[in-house]
Amino acid sequence: MDISKLKQGLREDLADILERSKFVERQKKTRSDAVHRLTRAEAIAIAANLYELLGWIPNLSVETTTQTTATAVNVTATVTGDETISITGLVAVPGDLLTANFDELAHPSYLLFDEFSGDSRPIESREALTFALFEGFTRNYRERYEFVLTDPVLRKKALLKAQHFDEDSD
Question: Domain extents for the chain?
Fold first, then answer.
């Protein structure tokens, strides 16, 4: 056996493995960048609509957060300054990034995230997700605000008190 031939064969095999690995990494990065651009653009559009609809709420925050194959849209606010009310939606690309066709990257999925169960349910469009987030958030905000108004101690902490209630009516 010729040791130099074995060494050369091993070098060639390792070079091939390295080349394939770099190709897979480039492909993965390209797909990841495409997913990031698409989902982030959709999520920012949703966040802008929600901020326009909910901008009157004190301490409102509408943020987007990029994840592996999705971008989350999170809406948060507080009624008294202590606890936070929030709701989250996801704009995601289904499937594995390495096996997904680039055509599929043009059609994201919209999901409403359930923070209690950790599950998410599909929503048919960007507009429907915007509406679902708006409805869910305002329902939770209204329920929490109603609870705060029924408690005399918490009522004094209500952030909207000065805008909606006469201070002398106590």
Answer: 3-169
